[in-house]
Write a structure and sequence with these properties.
About 40% of the residues lie in helices and about 15% in strands. The chain has about 260 residues and is of the alpha/beta class.
């Protein structure tokens, strides 16, 4: 059984004081959670404080990005070893905002994935299509390309530390959400790709998250799908009540596994 993972991406929000307040509230509200892995991703400046606060708790900390080189003349960048030294456990990579706003390409994202794994951290690799790509019938081609290039040179053994996040770009911050059936179809396709790239064991052990306007009101139906193993939450993760409700999602019987393509 894959342990569900709920991760909150705070994006460019929260001062150190605000992040401290939010984490304190989450530590109180989520103290009873043992069957879900919980991750929060503050801004870089708040990482040390949040890592200290959440130490020895159920909450793990992710960075929102990193640079693939370990050190050198790279002004303004932060490396994976520095994030590990800070206390981070995860790093979000390939988010659509990094791809679109900062023109990050799959080969560059792959360098980051490899550097994160080399530093002993766990990458959350984001993949997803735009509305134009979906409407033009390119959905599965885009997903396959991003996954293959993003995981290039990653070994089957390393895949135990890799998390995939499917985020349809048209559903991020728009209030629109893929239906549970739409999300489940793509998640099953991704799992099939992982089987082709690696093997059945890797495909079955890899957690695939859904991201895109996840809220307390839709998390239950999403998590009822067998191939959806958690969520990468944006705006709702900035509110302790909402994020706690998402982590405490209803635990229905999972639907039977969709056959791998």
């Amino acid at each position: 059984m894959r342990k569900p993972l709920i991760a909150g991406n705070w994006k460019l929000h929260k001062t150190i004081a605000q992040a401290t307040e939010l984490v304190n509230s989450l530590l109180e509200k989520l103290a009873d959670v043992k069957d879900v892995e919980i991750v929060v991703a503050p801004v870089f400046t708040a990482l040390p404080s949040v890592c200290r606060q959440s130490q020895n708790s159920a909450i793990m900390v992710a960075a929102q990005n990193c640079y693939p080189q370990t050190e050198g003349a790279f002004t303004g960048e932060v490396s994976a070893p520095l994030l590990a030294d800070c206390g981070c456990r995860y790093v979000i990579l390939g988010h659509s905002e990094r791809r679109q706003l900062f023109d990050e390409q799959d080969e560059f994202i792959n360098e980051k994935v490899l550097s994160v794994l080399a530093a002993g951290l766990r990458p959350i690799l984001c993949i997803g299509e735009t509305l134009e790509q979906r409407d033009s019938g390119e959905l599965f081609e885009v997903i396959a390309y991003q996954l293959r290039f993003g995981l290039a040179e990653v070994t089957a053994e390393q895949m135990t530390d890799v998390v995939i996040a499917y985020e349809p770009v048209w559903a991020i911050g728009t209030g629109k959400t893929a239906t549970s059936e739409e999300a489940a179809e793509v998640h099953a396709y991704i799992r099939g790709l992982l089987q082709g790239l690696f093997d059945h064991e890797v495909a079955e052990q890899t957690r695939i998250l859904y991201g895109g306007s996840v809220k307390p009101g839709n998390i239950g139906e999403l998590m009822a799908e067998a191939d959806i193993d958690g969520a990468l939450v944006g705006g709702a993760s900035l509110n302790a009540e909402d994020f706690s409700a998402i982590v405490h999602f209803p635990k229905p019987l999972r639907m039977s596994n969709t056959p791998l393509p």
